[in-house]
């Protein structure tokens, strides 16, 4: 019941917002923050009370806050939700990130009521996907996220927003159709004819028909690969990000991408263990190619938002590497495979926090200068030191520096995967060098050097001539003002700071005290490593 | 956790926490920063004394599921030496920085990163498990980036930091791989278990650690980043070249010496790379015209002896070399920094007679430079001989002695300039506006370091060396015989003297050297260029845009045009059939309407014709 309340609370508030057309903008924005705060409290309470019972790790037993209601009895699809070590971190991430985005949007003036409603509806869809333990329920929530994000991009995006939104919608919708085909395959392949994930994981369907199992995995794999996204299904991502509003980008990268990777670990691995083992090497290769492709293409970008979007492809590649290596049961011991899975789940959380922060920071650039082009900005550490500090911290977090959550994730993925897939892992490790290079070069171009700020009124003229040595009368002497301080880049506003800084603080806390999160993830990872080796 | 273990954790975490607090404080904390940094450094000295006496082991929970996933730190003999070194050097260099930084400098940022840097080194040298090691190791690299790029406003400074971080991180990748190999080979992440790992994993781990250490220590082929690292403030150079960063690589190889030996090839590789670095970078040092560049090249060369020591198993000698070099190099960088602040230049041309202008610093620098040249009875002479005494194999020995002689050559080259009587026509202030004075505090620090530089030679002399070896390894070391010591000293003196003579009689040699490839670091900077990666990146980006995305959009376009064609077909064929039927009926209706003319005579005719037809039909049927 608690879980159901937590899932639907945002949607109820969203409905209320839609139903009250006379609500003022600031009230709507505050209502959103209040609802997100309540949501965070609920999820925090669930974390506090999270108890799986001794020996149970989740996935097939020990699911907390479980609810199971008959829904479509003819196909045994039900409203079955529950929480375990795989979903709880992502539920918490969702609550945190939506709150941050809500605070960020406190100054939203463009149709704020509908804006808040769209995001709150999206929050319910995301929470529902992570909580679902029934394939049909999962599919419904999964599709609703696409719908909600389409409206966010098309309604509040900039540039070529409608086209990008349409591309996003159609591409990921095609993916979700492949997913549905796969789910129907699971339904038909099982002996008990059910859509219930727990039942399917306990008694995996298609265990002794490798061709059918492989085809069903292919359908599910393509569906999730488009959502994740991995090479070569990733090209919707940079367009969607470039034209999405900052808040939408933060959610898109922070939460929506995780729906794909979460699907792999929640559905593909436990329910199709035999097929996953058989095709694990393909998953590993796709992961490694995504790692390198994402990193290298990001390195070549001249637009900071596209660059960050491509690093998401890179970071999700690590997740696939870890999950694929966990399927190579013959080549590695269970301990190593559990560590790889733990790292993959940790990566989802770490990437959500850090990329969320990075996209909000690019939103600062957009709000000041209406451009993301790297060559239109420079030396921002002078006029905007707080922005510069937060950008540098997020960049170092995203490149996997120890002390940040991303290090815990990547370290575990690499150490866990090396035994099973040595060559692939050694190649993938190169990815952290390339991301280091691209983030450092972005820092150098945006923050250091002479200050360059685009002028609002003339988008073709990129350089604002820096005011030369201003002579200020100062007690008879002349003070040499530092050249190049332009007026167009005010530093972070309070709402921006309050939205971004906690994400980074969390990323550091989870990097220094990983037990907080690992205590939850590790038992589930061990269970998944056991299930996939069946 | 025992009290001593608590002290060890505090020793590492205090500078980290204080550093982070200073960074968060930003410019508001500038005024307090110097005081806070000095107090923290003093506390570090106290803490180091305690852990040296107690030798504790401490563990913090970190990763689960695996032995060695925790953050475990311990102080054994080798760590004790390094902890003492780091605490002492960081204290002295902190004092130097307080005196040397300009008044309006962003001190909170400087000391914040500086303290984090020190904490990372302390974590590195006490780490027992791989996660603990990697945290210290990588944070050290990142903070060195921030310190080298401290004056980010000036063009190129941050670039040098970027280069340092990327080069060392390229090496760090080896440590990630080594951690995976440790897990696969030993089932845990404990550093000391590595030599027992099974199968090929032992080799993978050794290779990974070797690469990581070579990167950090600026050994071949990674050396070039050290040249750019000179962009940082002098205090950063003084610490980065003595007790941290470059020292970390040497330390790590000494730490995993049993692993290197167990694999066979890795020990030999380390020995040769170390010896060759000592030789090549020694030659590069001779050809420099910038004092800081000369010192930088000599750092890589001197750490080469440590790497050589790890390769040949002379752990005691390697540790002594690390200690002695740290004191010598910190002293020289303090002197170089003092002159840079005072005279505004670090070019050797401008520094002619610098040692005479400021006598306290000058005397200290002279002693340190003589020690750097391996002149007996100063420290590096003894430690280097101890390392070389452990070398088997004639070829390696020859390379080692040649490199040793080269260090006397560059020391002599430096001293001929510094000690020459100033002409008064030196080009000064080419870097910054000099203050023409050296604070007493700076001279004092330089002199203290020079005393260490002179005295630490005792470490390698037979009676002390044996006990040091006992401390480090709990076994007898291979202290050099007296004859070897004297022979090495003689070699250094001869090389030193010969250099003086050559420079006196043939001064034209120097410009030739400076213009040679050696003067520009022998092109090492191009070796690890990012250019191929960048062009590959651009090519892939084009593929991404013009092939992969084109396929996607092409599919969409194809669906649309297919749909349009279907729509056309729909209109033409399907709807056409419907319309055709309708048209036929309409035409039939029109035809049927024709006879309905309303004219009576025509109806009669029609009736007559009809009756006629019926009659004909009747007749025909009948």
Automatic annotation (TrEMBL), chain B:
UniProt keyword Membrane present: yes
Domain (NADH:quinone oxidoreductase/Mrp antiporter transmembrane): residue spans on this chain: 130-396
InterPro entries tied to this protein: ND/Mrp_TM, NU5C-like, Proton_antipo_N
Molecular function per GO: NADH dehydrogenase (ubiquinone) activity; NADH dehydrogenase activity
Membrane topology of this protein: Multi-pass membrane protein
Alphabetical keyword list: Membrane, Transmembrane, Transmembrane helix
GO cellular component, one term: membrane
Keyword Iron included in the entry's annotation: no
Annotated transmembrane regions: 6-25, 32-53, 73-98, 110-128, 134-152, 173-192, 204-222, 234-253, 265-287, 294-316, 322-340, 361-382, 394-419, 440-461, 481-503, 603-621
Domain NADH-Ubiquinone oxidoreductase (complex I) chain 5 N-terminal: 71-111
Subcellular location(s) of the protein: Endomembrane system; Membrane
A Gene Ontology BP annotation from the UniProt entry: electron transport coupled proton transport
Name this protein carries in UniProt: NADH-quinone oxidoreductase subunit L
Naturally occurring in which organism (per UniProt): Modestobacter muralis
Lineage: Bacteria, Bacillati, Actinomycetota, Actinomycetes, Geodermatophilales
């Amino acid at each position: 019941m608690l879980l159901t309340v937590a899932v639907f609370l945002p949607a109820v508030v969203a409905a209320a917002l839609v139903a009250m057309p006379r609500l003022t903008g600031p009230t709507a924005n505050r209502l959103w923050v209040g609802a997100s705060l309540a949501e965070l409290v609920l999820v925090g309470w669930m974390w506090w009370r999270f108890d799986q019972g001794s020996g149970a790790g989740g996935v097939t037993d020990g699911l907390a806050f479980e609810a199971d209601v008959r829904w479509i009895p003819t196909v045994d699809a039900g409203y079955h939700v529950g929480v375990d070590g795989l979903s709880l971190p992502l539920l918490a991430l969702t609550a945190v990130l939506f709150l941050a985005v809500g605070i960020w949007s406190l100054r939203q003036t463009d149709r704020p009521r509908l804006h808040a409603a769209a995001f709150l509806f999206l929050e319910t869809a995301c929470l529902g996907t992570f909580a679902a333990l029934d394939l049909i329920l999962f599919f419904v929530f999964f599709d609703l996220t696409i719908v909600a994000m389409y409206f966010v991009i098309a309604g509040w995006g900039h540039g070529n927003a409608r086209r990008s939104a349409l591309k996003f919608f159609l591409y990921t919708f095609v993916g979700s159709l492949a997913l549905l085909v796969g789910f129907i395959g699971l339904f038909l392949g099982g002996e008990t004819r059910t859509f219930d994930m727990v039942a399917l994981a306990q008694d995996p369907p298609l265990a002794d028909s490798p061709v059918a199992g492989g085809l069903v995995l292919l359908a599910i794999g393509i569906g999730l690969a488009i959502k994740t996204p991995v090479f070569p299904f990733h090209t919707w991502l940079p367009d969607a990000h470039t034209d999405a509003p900052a808040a939408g980008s933060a959610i898109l990268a922070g939460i929506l991408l995780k729906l794909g990777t979460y699907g792999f670990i929640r559905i593909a691995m436990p329910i199709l263990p035999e097929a996953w083992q058989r095709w694990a090497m393909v998953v590993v290769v796709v992961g490694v190619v995504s790692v390198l492709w994402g990193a290298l293409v990001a390195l070549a970008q001249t637009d900071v938002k596209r660059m960050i979007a491509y690093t998401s492809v890179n970071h999700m590649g690590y997740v696939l590497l870890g999950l694929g290596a966990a399927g190579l049961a013959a080549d590695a011991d269970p301990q190593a495979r559990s560590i790889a899975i733990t790292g993959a789940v940790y990566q989802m959380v770490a990437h959500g926090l850090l990329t969320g922060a990075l996209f909000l920071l690019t939103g600062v650039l957009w709000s000041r200068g209406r451009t993301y082009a790297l060559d239109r900005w420079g030396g921002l550490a002078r006029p905007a030191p707080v922005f510069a500090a937060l950008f540098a911290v997020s960049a170092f977090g995203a490149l996997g520096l120890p002390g940040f959550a991303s290090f815990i994730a990547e370290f575990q993925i690499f150490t866990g995967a090396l035994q099973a897939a040595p060559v692939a892992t050694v190649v993938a490790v190169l990815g952290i060098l390339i991301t280091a290079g691209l983030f450092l070069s972005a820092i150098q171009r945006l923050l250091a050097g002479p200050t360059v700020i685009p002028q609002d009124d003339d988008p073709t003229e990129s350089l604002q001539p820096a005011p030369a040595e201003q002579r200020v009368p100062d007690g008879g002497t002349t003070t040499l003002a530092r050249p190049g301080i332009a007026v167009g880049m005010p530093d972070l506003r309070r709402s921006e700071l309050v939205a971004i800084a906690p994400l980074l603080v969390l990323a550091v806390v989870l990097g220094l005290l990983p037990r907080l999160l690992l205590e939850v993830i590790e038992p589930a990872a061990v269970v998944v490593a056991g299930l996939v080796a069946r | 956790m025992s009290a001593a273990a608590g002290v060890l954790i505090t020793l590492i975490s205090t500078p980290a926490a204080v550093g982070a607090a200073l960074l968060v404080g930003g410019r508001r904390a500038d005024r307090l920063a110097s005081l806070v940094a000095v107090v923290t450094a003093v506390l570090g000295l106290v803490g180091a004394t305690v852990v040296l006496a107690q030798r504790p082991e401490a563990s913090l929970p970190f990763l689960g599921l695996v032995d060695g996933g925790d953050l475990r730190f311990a102080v054994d003999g080798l760590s004790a030496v390094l902890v003492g070194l780091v605490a002492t050097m960081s204290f002295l260099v902190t004092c130097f920085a307080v005196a040397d930084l300009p008044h309006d400098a962003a001190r909170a940022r400087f000391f914040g990163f500086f303290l984090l840097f020190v904490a990372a080194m302390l974590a590195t040298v006490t780490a027992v498990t791989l996660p603990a090691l990697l945290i210290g190791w990588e944070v050290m690299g990142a903070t060195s980036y921030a310190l080298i790029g401290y004056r980010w406003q000036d063009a190129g400074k941050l670039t040098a930091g970027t280069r340092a971080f990327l080069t060392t991180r390229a090496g760090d990748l080896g440590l990630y791989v080594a951690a995976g190999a440790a897990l696969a080979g030993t089932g845990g992440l404990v550093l000391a278990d590595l030599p027992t790992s099974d199968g090929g994993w032992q080799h993978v781990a050794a290779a990974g650690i070797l690469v990581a250490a070579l990167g950090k220590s600026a050994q071949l082929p990674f050396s070039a980043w050290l040249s750019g690292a000179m962009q940082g403030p002098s205090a950063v150079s003084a610490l980065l070249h003595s007790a941290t960063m470059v020292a970390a690589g040497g330390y790590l190889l000494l730490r995993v010496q049993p692993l290197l030996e167990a694999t066979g090839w890795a020990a030999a590789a380390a020995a040769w790379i170390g010896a060759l670095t000592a030789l090549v970078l020694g030659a590069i040092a001779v050809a420099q015209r910038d004092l800081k560049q000369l010192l930088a090249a000599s750092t890589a060369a001197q750490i080469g002896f440590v790497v050589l020591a790890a390769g040949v198993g002379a752990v005691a000698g390697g540790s002594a070399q690390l200690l002695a070099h740290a004191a010598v190099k910190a002293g020289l960088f303090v002197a170089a920094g003092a002159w840079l602040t005072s005279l505004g230049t670090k070019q050797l041309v401008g520094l002619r007679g610098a040692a005479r202008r400021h006598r306290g610093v000058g005397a200290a620098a002279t002693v340190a430079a003589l020690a750097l040249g391996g002149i007996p009875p100063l420290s590096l002479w003894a430690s280097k001989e101890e390392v070389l005494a452990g070398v088997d194999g004639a070829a390696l020995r020859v390379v080692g002695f040649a490199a040793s002689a080269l260090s006397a050559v560059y020391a002599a080259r430096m001293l001929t300039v510094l000690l020459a009587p100033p002409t008064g026509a030196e080009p000064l202030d080419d870097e910054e506006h000099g203050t023409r004075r050296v604070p007493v505090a700076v001279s004092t620090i330089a002199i203290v370091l020079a005393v260490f530089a002179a005295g630490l030679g005792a470490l390698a002399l037979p009676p002390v060396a044996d006990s040091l070896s006992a401390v480090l390894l709990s076994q007898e070391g291979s202290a050099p015989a007296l004859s070897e010591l004297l022979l090495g000293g003689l070699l250094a003196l001869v090389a030193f003297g010969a250099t003086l003579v050559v420079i006196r009689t043939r001064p034209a040699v120097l410009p030739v050297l400076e213009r040679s490839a050696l003067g520009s670091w022998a092109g090492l900077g191009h070796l690890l260029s990012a250019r191929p990666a960048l062009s590959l990146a651009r090519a892939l980006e084009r593929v991404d845009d013009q092939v992969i995305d084109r396929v996607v959009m092409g599919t969409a376009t194809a669906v649309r045009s297919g749909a349009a064609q279907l729509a056309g077909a729909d209109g033409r064929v399907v709807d056409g059939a419907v319309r055709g039927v309708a048209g036929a009926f309409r035409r039939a209706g029109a035809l049927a309407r024709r006879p309905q003319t309303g004219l009576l005579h025509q109806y009669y005719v029609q009736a007559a014709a009809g009756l006629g037809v019926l009659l004909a039909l009747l007749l025909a049927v009948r």
